[in-house]
Amino acid sequence: MEAPDEQTTPFSSVTAQTNKLGRQYQALLDQSTPYVLYRWIGTGVGLLIFFARVFFAQGWYIVAYALGIYLLNLFLAFLQPKFDPSNDALDNDMEDGALGSLPTKQDEEFRPFIRRLPEFKFWHSATRAVTISFLCSWFEVFNVPVFWPVLVMYWFMLFILTMRKQIQHMIKYRYVPFSIGKARYTKNNA
């Protein structure tokens, strides 16, 4: 029995269209890469629209809570270095220490801060999550009745505790994930 050709399978046209849409979507993402501020403004507007939907509909609090936890998780991954210096003590398998780790002593070589979650992937995941949450807010099955002030209190407690831990980690291993005050060079300066 011979295997059917790709052109004769019943789903070849569907696969071709899916691949075409995937390429167009990737092209849009590639074009949006340099516009960091505009991308985040768009995501912020989408988040505000979602919160307005939740506020005026008086429901879908559990969806908003899940979105908040997911965004917090993304933010923490954005703040953390790709090569965590606290794992060096656990991973002493390498002879010279972990490659790519942050310097922890004054005389160590400088290594740039590399994020565990790059900004573009952070934005893309956050935008997808906001979009999915907004879509979920139109289906009654996701409108689980909960006492929303408790969820807000839980989220703030979670945020405070995790950020406290992250800030302590940043202080202990002396790294700053932001480049505030960094000198910017233009063509005229060079």
UniProtKB/TrEMBL annotation:
It comes from the Eukaryota. It is a multi-pass membrane protein. GO terms for biological process: protein retention in ER lumen; retrograde vesicle-mediated transport, Golgi to endoplasmic reticulum. Keywords: Membrane, Transmembrane, Transmembrane helix. It is found in: Membrane. One of its GO terms (cellular component) is Golgi membrane. Belongs to the RER1 family. This is Protein RER1. The lineage of its organism: Eukaryota, Fungi, Dikarya, Ascomycota, Pezizomycotina.
